[in-house]
Model the fold of this input.
Amino acid sequence: MNVQLSNKKEAIFESTLKLVKEHGFHGTPMSQIATHANVATGTIYHYFSSKDELIVELFKYCRLKMGEHVFKIDKGFSYKERFFHIWNSLLEYYADHQDVFSFFEQFYSSPYSELVKNKEITEDFNADKMMRFFEEGIANKEIRNITFYSFISAFIGTLTFLVRSNQYGLYQADEKDRSDLIEIIWNGVKNQ
Amino acid sequence: MNVQLSNKKEAIFESTLKLVKEHGFHGTPMSQIATHANVATGTIYHYFSSKDELIVELFKYCRLKMGEHVFKIDKGFSYKERFFHIWNSLLEYYADHQDVFSFFEQFYSSPYSELVKNKEITEDFNADKMMRFFEEGIANKEIRNITFYSFISAFIGTLTFLVRSNQYGLYQADEKDRSDLIEIIWNGVKNQ
DNA sequence: TGCAACCGAATGAACGTTCAGTTGTCAAAT
DNA sequence: ATTTGACAACTGAACGTTCATTCGGTTGCA
Done:
């Protein structure tokens, strides 16, 4: 996939992220996105055939960007170290890109996600990488005999909830909370 | 809060749940809710002053109903038993009420949740009960020294992710997955 | 008889999308 | 070196639809 974007297209993406976080999908009209991006309404339709396509393309773009950040880990680390690293990278990414997190949350819980379900879900490199990371752990007896979905529920679910609590303003997690949580998960999934 | 609803009001609630699960908030017009509930459009406005109020009232109604189901646990069980029971009850409730789960997900990730944030969040009996359950565990040294939000992230986060995966059609969790997961969490949070 | 419950067509605003036109760019032709 | 032409990038007013909300009227019960 091409990650090099024109200025205008990038501005449209950024504006959409910001406005969707604040007002939701249906609360942000195309006209508002255009204004915020310093672009004419029609220009958006030069890049995207519809609002739906804009949303879906933005989703795929963010997913790719996120994956690039999270999985850039050097070889040579132990399994446990990589386990901790991936979790912390993802947490860090969401902390630094709250609009992306909010966009993902809204996207997954909306009917938009249907549009990516069949074809595209198999193109989810992040899911693939997590799957391979899981299988490596199983093969090397690093983690105990559970399914991928138990593994991923513990791994991603806790993280998602923590970020959501932060964003919701309920709680500001500190370093100890984070290390407690990843310890909880690691102790739960590791072998013996 | 009054949980006794008129027939029409209940029908409106049920229709909203069903349609929102299928088409999302902005994808379900008031007229469609009315039709599905065998009611005139105007009737909805007899019960609710606006669509926003309908959504927020429905949220509070569902939250209450869910709490009634999840926390009906007899005294006399051990802490660990209650820990497992609450988790499984919640999972069961969401499995039996997928539209409620989907509604919650959409609600929390949308700007609607802002409408409940300040005043109403303190009226969340479920959060209160979980908090007290947590504090009991701390006081009796059943669980180790972590914050409530680490605790709840592990407890609810995993569950939410598992239900979401189910709903999304990625995976159908079986009994072993469920018991694996709750074991992972319990082992992670229990004392020593 | 009065009032709450209920009805559904009408209203008006909001919004996604279109389109006729303008601007900028760059390579080929002169 | 300058002109030409063609096409992509871009503009924003206008269109048509959709939808939340209103309201004048009807029904049924106490």
